[in-house]
Amino acid sequence: MITVxxxxxKKSCFFITILECIVDYNGFSQFIIGIHNENDLVVFDKFxxxxxxxxxxxxxxxxxxxxxxLLSSPKFKIGIxxxxxxxxxxxxIITKNWNDPLMQKNKKSKRHVRxxxxxxxxxxxxxxxxxxxxxxxxxxxDIVEIxxxxxxxxxxxxxxxxxxxxxxxxxxxxxIESGAHGREWITQSSIxxxxxxxxxxxxxxxxxxxxxxIIIIPSLNPDGYEYSREKDRMWRGNRNIKSNxxxxxxxxxxxxxxxxxxxxxxxxSGEKPNSENETLGFVNLVKNNINYIKGYLSLHSxxxxxxxxxxxxxxxxxxxxxxxxxxxxxxIFDIKKETNASYIHGTAADILYNSYGCALDYMKSLxxxxxxxxxxxxxxxxxxxxxxxxxxILPASKEFEVAAVKFLNQIYEEF
Length: 415
Prior knowledge:
By secondary structure, the chain is an alpha+beta fold. The chain has twelve helices and 17 strands. Helix 5 packs across helix 6 and helix 5 packs across helix 12 (393-414).
């Protein structure tokens, strides 16, 4: 085994062959930092200025009583520990092998899709998911249509699915997007199950299909997802690595309050707004339909949050804020009732962190009334975070489905 350090010193890898490098997270340390009061938040900013570009944040928060979770390579462990002690922040450390055994399973397993048969309780490759969607299109031609959104830097075709009865009359549109971040596998599985349930239970949703066109982008970042499955489990961005060896964070690349950011590798925002193929494909779809788009839902993980605009500044709200909050509360109520899972709502800037150039705010800036990001299961108290077992797929997908159906019904009733 040959181990080498990457240029950003955060990760190391071992070579299976001279051309195949698998990032190795054995011996990495997770720091769980308790935020108990406002002073802890102020003090943590000092830590962030020192180590923010050297660690991988799994969960950040501005909520008192929650934890900040980050992953560090062995190189920075001692320095982080000493600084946290100096700042008198409450923390604990988990040092172990953070490699995901499911990556090896992905390599060894055969396809889980055979025509009209699919195992919904496993993580699928992008190609397997698309093959299954193509089967659904062939069987349910009256309500399902698949089109191309764009081509990634690695040459993958990004697909989107339109669900709704075909008509010459223009219909209100809802856009649901998933998979902007490669390592958030649970979102890919949840959207697959949601699409399957929506179509196969069409009798329950006929009224929605008659009035609305539901456009679903199952994987906005298939390159990042496949790279996470095969080479680097913690990969977040796309695979355009010309300017940054972490790729571009698509959800920081949109042309609203965009901010050039080189400081944190994982959230690199690109050379300019809308610089990425994935972003451009999304933007073109939106611009071609903007007069009819009434709602936008973006699926992420993890933490169990429902997020709404604005994300770029704390205590900054939209003119429809009260109505947006009301719908968020309705979604949370239904999730709790149906699954017993507890969600928190708020703007990203108020409860998590400031973010710039994100799709949520971009869609709102175009006048779309209801725009949300759902950070689904696991909860922020599960410290494996992105490395989840396949047992979580069905519960997580149920939480998303309950929220999405409530969201769609609101659009149906209002527009």
